Amino acid sequence: MQGFRLRGSDNISYHIADIMRNIEAGVRGFLVYDEGVLFILNKMRAEGVIPAETIFKFSVFGGYCSAAGAKVVESMGVNSFNPLSDVSLPILSSIRKTVDIPLDVYVIIVDAFGGMYRAYEAPEIARVAAPVYFKIEPGTSEGDIYKPWAFESFHRDLVREKVKMAQVIQELMGRHAPQLKTSGKGPADLILPVVG
Questions:
Q1: Which of 6, 75, 102, 111 has the highest CB neighbour number within 10 Å of its CB?
Q2: 183: which residues sit within 8 A by CB, 6+ positions away?
Q3: Measured in Å, how far apart are the chain's first and last C-alpha atoms?
Q4: Predicted local distance difference test score (pLDDT) of residue 177
Q5: Please, how many CA atoms are within 13 Å of residue 47, restricted to the half-sphere of its CB?
Q6: What is the pTM of this model?
Q7: Taking the CB of residue 137, how many other CB atoms lie within 10 A of it?
Q8: Residue 103 and residue 96: Cα distance in Å, rounded?
């Protein structure tokens, strides 16, 4: 599944209204998969309608899986880029050589998107694509994970699973690539929600 776009100005306005609601709640990082929306959000950020520290990650749903595509979205102002989940190490390497923003690379993906488990590839992914963040999304589908009406216990348990898998990946990095640096808590290019 790739190349998602919002349909019509009404859906774009609903989407931006939801982002503004989240900004009011303190959120400062958003996933974007539509270049038109990214264009509008960047204008809003430049004009101070959206706080300057707000970051945008271009989603896997945008469908880009090449260095040229990554360069396009970087030029549009994204702060990080998520290529398709099954891209090869040579493709990741070519993307890294082309853009300066961090890459968000899936190492675990939902069953509906292939159910790939690339944790043992994490050291090589880091070697060719750093700076890189490993994306961990276990489960049956993205729809299950991101339903806003899911029970709080579902999301709490999902977060626990992600933390457990992150610990496994951190262990694999330490074992198989001890020379590579893992980010500490609170890296400068991640934005935490504003409280209060």
A1: 102
A2: none
A3: 38
A4: 93
A5: 7
A6: 0.86
A7: 20
A8: 8
Alpha-carbon distances of 101 from 29, 34, 40, 82, 177, rounded to whole Å: 15, 18, 20, 10, 22
CA angle 83, 183, 170 (to 5 degrees): 80
pLDDT tens-digit series, residues 53-111: 999 999 988 888 999 999 999 999 999 999 988 899 999 999 999 999 999 999 998 88
What are the tokens at 69?
A: 């595509």
- 3-state per-residue secondary structure call for the chain: CCCCCCCHHHHHHHHHHHHHHHHHCCCCEEEECCHHHHHHHHHHHHCCCCCCCCEEEECHHHCCCCHHHHHHHHHCCCCEECCCCCCCHHHHHHHHHHCCCCEEEEEECCHHHCCCECHHHHHHHHHHHCCEEEEECCCCCHHHHHCCCCCHHHHHHHHHHHHHHHHHHHHHHHHHCCCCCCCCCCCCCCCCCCCC
Q: Residues 108, 165: contact at Cβ < 8 Å?
A: yes
> 56 burial class (0-12, 13-18, 19+ CB within 10 angstroms)?
buried
Name residue, tokens 């998969």.
33
Q: Is 15 exposed, middle or buried (0-12, 13-18, 19+ CB in 10 A)?
A: middle
